[in-house]
């Protein structure tokens, strides 16, 4: 069932029973919870940065509002038959504007708390791994590499636009007699 149909069904007095009807799973296997948590971490804790070699690299950059949003979507995917469209922001806003997101969350089975715990633990692990000395050095070099690449590209563009002014050697003819 899509979000629009769900919201239309929620207009009556029996909101709790409508929500209960769409909660289709009481338990989600641990491996599925871990896979969902990994997706959330990948999408909300890293951003792409172009390195000096032209390749895109991941830089640790935590976006907690995005993590929250993705977690709500994960709950919908894992525990309900409510489908998310190609415009998940619109779907989320349709639910949240009427507080249906909160109503769905409060009616999820106790097993959903385990997913939250797994996600929190995996985020803590990721933070620890990235913020260790090794992780900090790697993260700094990725970010610094991107800054150097941008500065070098700007330098080359400036030099090309000035037609090598100031870059030619004055004494080039001095060696030839």
How would you sum up this structure in a few lines?
The protein is mostly helical and 177 residues long. It has eight helices and two strands, in the order H-H-H-E-E-H-H-H-H-H.
Notes on the protein architecture:
This protein has 177 residues and is mainly alpha-helical. It has one domain (3-160). Helix content is 64%, strand content 6%. The protein has 8 helices and 2 strands. It has helices spanning 3-9, 15-22, 30-45, 64-79, 88-96, 100-107, 111-131, 133-161, and strands spanning 46-50, 56-60. β1 (46-50) and β2 (56-60) form a beta hairpin. α3 (30-45) packs across α7 and α7 (111-131) packs across α8 (133-161). The longest helix is centred in the last third of the chain and has 29 residues, at 133-161. The mean pLDDT is 86.
Q: Characterize the biggest β-sheet.
A: 2 strands, antiparallel
Mean pLDDT, all residues: 86
Q: What percentage of amino acids are in beta strands? A: 5-15%
Overall tally of domains? 1
**Shape estimate:** elongated
Radius of gyration: 26 Å
Helix content: 55-70%
**What is the element string, with H for helices and E for strands?**
HHHEEHHHHH
Number of strands: 2
Q: Provide a count of the helices.
A: 8
Oligomer: single chain
| End-to-end C-alpha gap | 87 Å
Strand order of the largest sheet: 1-2
Instruction: Report low-confidence residues grouped into runs of 5 or more.
Output: none
Content-based structural category: mainly alpha
């Amino acid at each position: 069932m899509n979000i629009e149909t769900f919201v239309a069904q929620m207009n009556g007095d029996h909101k709790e029973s409508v929500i209960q009807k769409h909660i289709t799973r009481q338990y989600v296997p641990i491996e599925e919870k871990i896979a969902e948590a990994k997706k959330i971490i990948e999408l909300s804790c890293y951003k792409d940065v172009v390195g000096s070699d032209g390749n895109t690299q991941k830089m640790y950059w935590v976006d907690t509002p995005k993590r929250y949003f993705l977690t709500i979507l994960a709950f919908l995917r894992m525990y309900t038959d409510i489908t998310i469209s190609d415009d998940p922001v619109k779907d989320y806003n349709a639910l949240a504007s009427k507080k249906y997101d909160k109503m769905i969350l409060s009616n999820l089975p106790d097993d959903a708390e385990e997913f939250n715990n797994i996600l929190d633990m995996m985020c803590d692990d990721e933070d620890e791994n990235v913020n260790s000395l090794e992780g900090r050095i790697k993260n700094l070099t990725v970010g610094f590499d991107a800054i150097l690449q941008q500065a070098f590209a700007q330098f080359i563009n400036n030099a090309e636009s000035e037609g090598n002014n100031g870059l030619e050697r004055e004494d080039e003819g001095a060696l030839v007699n």
